Amino acid sequence: MQLHWETQGQGFPILCLHGHPGSAKTMTVFMVGLSDRYQTLAPDLRGYGASRTRSPFELEDSLIDLIELLDTQGIDRCLVLGWSLGGILAIELALRYPERVAGLVLIATAARPVGAHPPPSWLELINTGLGSILNVLAPGNPWVVRGLGPRSLYRYLLRQHTPQAYHHLAKAGFWAYLGTSPLAHRALNRALARRYNRLPDLGAITVPCLVLCGAEDCHITAQASLETAAHLPRAESHCYPNTAHLLPWEIPEQLIEDIHYWLERHGEALGMVSR
C-alpha cells in the first residue's frame, strides 16, 4: 500500500520509523534534529496515522511497504532509525534487504524484546485519561506534569516529567494513540504471541549500528537493548540514566547530539555524504 510520509532536509537519506502507538509526527524530534545535514523521511506505518487500511495485515507486510516507499523516492540505500517497534522493523529490513540498509540507529528497542511493566491499577488508568485530556487542552499544564502525570501510566513511559516531554505527548503522542487502528494492535499482538527473537540472526548485520536505551525503560528493558547491541558485530551502545521508553522526548538535545557525533565518526563506513 502507499504510505503517508513526511520529509525534511537534504543529503544522505535517513528513514525514521515510529513505534506503537505512533505516527510520523512522533518522529519530528529526529526529523528536525537531523535534517540540517541529512534527508529525513518518516512514514506512517501501515495501519497507523494516515496510512489507513481495511484489510488485516502482519507486521512483516510493513517491510514491503517501506521498500516500495524507498523505490518511489529513488532511494537505493539509507540509514534506518527506529524507535521501539520501529527499531524491530529496522532490524528486519537489515536482515531481509541488506543491500538497502547502510546502518542502524536503534532506540528503546530489542531483537528479543522483554518488558517489565507492572499491571496497571484502576487509579492509574483514570489519571491517565484525565491527564491526557488536560494536557491536550493545555500542554505542559503543571497539574499534569507534577500531579496527574506521575500518578498515571506516564510514570512508566517517563522518568523526567518535564513540560517539554508533555508538550510532545500533547502534540504527537495523544493523536498517535488515537490514530493507531485496531488492525495495528492485532498485528502487534500476533507478533508478540510468536515470541519474537532475532538474536541468533544478528551476526548477519555487518553495517555500523548505534543502540540507545533508557535505564528505567520497563516497556522494552535496557537489558534487552544492550543484549541486542552485544549480538551486533559492529554496534556501539549507550544507556541513559533517569530515562524510560520516551527518552527521545525526555532528553532530545542529548540524543540528537550523540547521534550526530556517531554519524560524523562513521560517515565513511556508512557511505554517507552530508552537505
List keywords for this structure.
Rossmann fold; 2 domains; globular
Give your account of this protein's structure.
With 275 residues, the chain is an alpha/beta fold. The protein has two domains: 5-116 and 180-270, 3-Layer(aba) Sandwich (Rossmann fold); 122-177, no CATH class. 43% of the residues lie in helices and 14% in strands. The protein is built from eleven helices and seven strands. The protein has helices at 28-34, 61-72, 85-96, 122-137, 142-148, 154-157, 163-178, 182-193, 222-231, 247-250, 252-270; strands at 5-8, 13-17, 39-43, 78-83, 101-107, 209-214, 235-240. It has a seven-stranded mixed β-sheet with strand order 1-3-2-4-5-6-7, sandwiched between helices. Helix 1 links the parallel strand 2 and strand 3 (39-43). Helix 1 crosses helix 11 (252-270) and helix 4 crosses helix 7 (163-178). The radius of gyration is 18 Å and the shape is globular. It starts with a strand and ends in a 5-residue tail after the last helix. The model has no long low-confidence stretch (mean pLDDT 95).
What structural category characterises the helix and strand content?
A: alpha/beta
Helical content (DSSP H or I, runs of 4+): 40-55%
Oligomer: single chain
Overall, the morphology is: globular
Instruction: Quickly count the helices.
Output: 11
Ends: how far apart?
32 Å
CATH class category label of the largest domain = Alpha Beta
- Structural domain tally: 2
- The CATH topology name of the largest domain reads Rossmann fold
Portion of residues in beta strands equals 5-15%
Look at the structure and name the CATH superfamily of the largest domain.
Answer: Alpha/Beta hydrolase fold, catalytic domain
Look at the structure and give the mean pLDDT.
95
Architecture of the largest domain, CATH level 2? 3-Layer(aba) Sandwich
Order of helices and strands: EEHEHEHEHHHHHEHEHH
Major sheet size, sense and barrel closure = 7 strands, mixed
Low-confidence stretches: none
Strands of the biggest beta sheet: in what spatial order?
1-3-2-4-5-6-7
State Rg. Answer: 18 Å
Number of strand elements: 7
